[in-house]
Specification:
Blueprint lengths: L3 E7 L10 E7 L10 H6 L3 E9 L5 E8 L4
Antiparallel strand pairs: 1-2, 3-4
């Protein structure tokens, strides 16, 4: 099985006046969260809901912002 990509639209339901943003996404059937680049979050004017500590593959820990709401 290979990688599955999809064209999706993201929008901010709190700001319906903003146009939805078309993006190419890598689909992961086991994912629990949506990971988006910072420039997408800025363009959609998403609010930071909270921060969580995450550990990356190199073993380092970082605080990562969780943003939302987002409509797919």
């Amino acid at each position: 099985m290979g990688l599955v990509n999809a064209k999706i639209e993201l929008s901010n339901p709190r700001h319906p006046e903003l146009n939805p943003m078309p993006v190419n996404a890598l689909a992961d059937s086991g994912a629990l969260h949506l990971c988006i680049p910072e420039h997408v979050a800025v363009q959609l004017d998403l609010d930071e809901l909270y921060q969580r500590e995450v550990t990356t593959a190199d073993g380092k820990t970082h605080l990562s912002p969780y943003l939302g709401p987002i409509k797919v």
